[in-house]
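In full, the data:

***
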Amino acid sequence: MFRTFRKFLLVLSALLLLHAISISDPIWADPASGDTETSPAASIQAKALNKEVEQLYRHVEEGNVQAVLEDTRRVSSLFEASSFQGLTGVEGIHALAESILEMKEATARAVQEPQHWMRSAGKLRMASDSLIHSRDALWLQYFKVIREDLRVMGQYAAQQDKPGMKRAYDSLEEHYELIRPSIVIQRKPEDVNMIESWISYAGGLVTSGETSEVQRVLPQGEEMMNMLFGKKKDEPALAPLAEVREPWTWQLVIGAFILAALTFVGYRKYRGQQYSSKPMFPRKL
């Protein structure tokens, strides 16, 4: 009976864990709306697009302009023939389309502007990747880069170094523009509008040389960036927004394990009492 009860607890805990993971997994959720299911066809099309973009990016690294032209045509055709319903919202689709268009224009000027060509390829690479990866998307690696821009910006503001503050802001703006399509694809429009309003406001303060005001608004910008990257305050590891917004899922799992443990302890105690109430040796008949 004891072994049967223990197996029951293990199976119950496993089922609860699997259920929690299945309802918290964002693969089938629209990052922009949070309530739209993803069709299997959309996932397949997104993976096919991402594969072509990966090849395009490799050809850009090699400097093969002719191959990139062919890759870009295939990427454009795939995009036009695909539906990414459930993977992103209207804004995300527009951002991806703009990245493809920018790549076409940059390729036309690849010889004259190789750096811009490479940046456009990187922007498109991260954008297509964000369609198929929600928890470990490439653009999330820019969190430390953005935070460093903010830190340096605050350091120069504290030193009343206006040119240095301007350089740090320009770096922040450049890095944000690189990952912007990915952010628009994965985050809600109101979150994107909020951070971009802050960046614009901070830019105005930097241009006017208001160092004290820049220092005042930087903490707000840091908090917004934490939220945008799905990172809790002062937490060293990255965490997707789904985990931040829905902590009750894991509380349910932990509670289930605690309940199972308490039930098990109670059962052992009951068995112990039953055993101690019996004579050590059976009476002889």
Observations:
- Residues 122 and 164 are 27 Å apart (CA to CA).
- The two ends are 28 Å apart (CA to CA).
- The chain has eleven helices and no strands.
